Amino acid sequence: MVKGLNALFVALGLYTDAGGGYLLLNAIGDGLFHFMPLFLGYTAAKKFSLKPMIGLVIGAIMCYPAVQNSALSAGGPALYTLFAGTMFESAVYTEFFGLPLIAMDYTGTVIPVIFVVYFASKCEKFFSKFIPDLVKFFFVPMLTLFVAIPVGFLLIGPLATFGSAMIAEAVMSVRNFSPMLAGAIVGLTWQILVIFGLHWGFIPVYINNIMTNGYDNVMMPFFACTFATSAVVLAVFFKTKNKQIKEMAIPNFISGIFGVTEPAIYGILLPLKKPFIISCIAGGIGGGFYGAFNFRKFMMGGMGIFEFPAMIEPDGGLGNLAVAVIGVLLTMVIAFVGTMIFYKETDTQEKAEETEGKETKGETKDGSMLRKTEIASPIKGQVLKLSDIKDEAFASGVLGGGAAILPEEGSVYAPADGEITALFPTLHALGMKTEEGAELLIHIGLDTVQLNGEGFEAHIQNGDKVKKGQLLITFDKELLEGKGYCLETPVLITNSDDYLEVLETASGSIRPGEELLKALR
User: Fold this and answer.
1) In a 3-state reduction of DSSP, which class is residue 341?
2) C-alpha–C-alpha distance, residues 486 and 141, integer Å
3) Which end of the chain is more exposed for a tag (fewer CB within 10 A), N or C?
């Protein structure tokens, strides 16, 4: 929305695109999408059970300015060219210890960072198996990055680049056979290519066509997609009863008209799925129309409706511009009508009501559905309110909501099915992620890290899959008490911000397996 308004205000002459106002507003609109690998690195790490901060670091590395193709190519001529004369021809500007680094621009892309993080998650689990617990915290992340980043830049990134080149070459081949079919393919798949970062294969073709032919007609069928997205979002506005989606729809529609479709794609179309498919189909029909009528763009620049001036023929003819306008209207009508007919509100309601694992449903006062995740007690003992324990960091709730237990015996059991995500070297605490997505921290006693593992024994390893009730850790209760340590044991849901509320559902005496907490979302 910010980018769309920024473009509109410049067009109305309120300020110019050379001033600081434009620059700052553009940064607000572009920041998230420019640094998309950082956010995806973090969320992909959580999905693949990699430490989230490592995923964030991987995303930051992939956005590092000096490793982008645009920066490397601006630094001087290429050292040499790989695969010369083929569709995989790649200029090499630098090497990694003798291995050619085929660079690409990773900012704003999606797929490369996800694959790198997935590979890194495997590396982390591998190194965690044999690195001593005492040095795991710094050696495992370091070795994971040492391996995953070079493989990502040397192999995963180039494969994405070659995928882009193959797609562009395939479209060129189809265009030689049928311009209408080629245009339909571009229009149908463009949004998918953008999401995966594979659209970059078309950019060199686009630039070369404008510089050599004075126009481009290969990539331009994608123009229909922008308006297909906008029309679908407008139709969703009229169809939905979901207040949050309705509030998002109009700003995203306006933003799409001005050429900025990412908020609509990621915020509405992809989550709802069917509208995204409809927008792709409408974009394909519009792209086929553009291909059949040899739709062209004669200069670079502009977004959305501000691209129309670039479609006026150099001699002043308006025939190509008329094709552009008709194609936009055709695409928007198809997208709008298609969404009104085929999109049903129940598509989202049914998804919202789905439950996973051991989650249960309950109805709120406004009729919406809540999902309840139950967390059992990991220890036999007396339940304490988290706010009453003697450690301020835990009691304040800053580390997450939950409860505490004063143990009556020295055994800790899994409070739910899930995976061990962190086993502290001193064995006094562990983290786990349940199958329902709750991230737990069980901290045995207060300040017990100072024992350096004395009196503790682990029965699991980091990365192990565990079942509810499985023995995780045993500890010498008498030894800890004899040394003067407080045994109050916090049981926290560290991602409490992902939930509406975390409730303490037990009091008094409790046994392992009995419900201790309930998390609502």
Assistant:
1) helix
2) 32
3) C
Closest by CA to 420, choosing from 433, 429, 438, 435, is 433
Name the amino acid, one letter, at 427: L
In angstroms, the CA 143 to CA 139 distance is 6
Range 491-509 average pLDDT? 87
The domain containing residue 56 runs over which residues?
35-177
Mean pLDDT confidence for 346-373: 49
CB atoms within 10 A of CB 239: 18
Say yes or no: 131 and 62 in one domain: yes
Q: Distances in Å between the alpha carbon of 459 and those of 3, 137, 243, 464?
A: 54, 19, 48, 10
- Residue 373 near residue 359 (C-beta atoms within 8 A): yes
Distance CA 165, CA 200 (A): 8
Contact 112, 156 (CB under 8 A): yes
Alpha helices for 214-292 (secondary structure H) = 223-239, 243-257, 262-264, 270-272, 274-292
Strands 360-363 and 489-493: unpaired
Residues 342-354 as b or e (16 or more Cβ within 10 Å = b)? ebeeeebeeeeee
Residues with a known catalytic role: 443
Domain assignment present for 182: no
Note whether 381 and 505 are same-domain residues. yes
Query: How many distinct structural domains can be found in the chain?
Result: 3
Amino acid at 433: K
Whether 146 shows a pLDDT value over 90: the answer reads yes
Which 3-state string (H, E, C) describes 364-406? CCCCCEEEEEEEECCCCEEEECHHHCCCHHHHCCCCCEEEEEE
DSSP 8-class letter at 424: -
Q: How far apart are CA 359 and CA 84, in angstroms?
A: 56
Amino acid symbol at 312: I
CA-based nearest residue to 4, from 300, 269, 267, 254: 254
Two tokens, residue 15: 């300020």
Q: How many helices (H) and strands (E) does the chain have?
A: 19, 19
Instruction: Supply the pTM of this predicted model.
Output: 0.49
Three-state secondary structure call for residue 318: coil
Considering the domain architecture, whether residues 214 and 307 belong to the same structural domain is answered as yes
Dist CA 184 CA 293 (whole Å): 12
Residue 232 lies in a domain: yes
Are 319 and 376 contained in the same domain? no
> Mind listing the pLDDT tens digit for each residue in 50-89?
889 999 999 999 999 999 988 988 888 889 988 888 777 7
Least confident range from 81-85, 325-329, 361-365, 469-473: namely 361-365
Please, are residues 190 and 199 in contact by the beta-carbon 8 Å criterion?
Answer: yes
Q: Taking the CA atoms of the chain, what radius of gyration do you get in angstroms?
A: 28
Q: Give DSSP secondary structure letters for 85-96.
A: TSTT-EEE--EE
Q: What are phi and psi of 391, to 5 degrees?
A: -100, 120
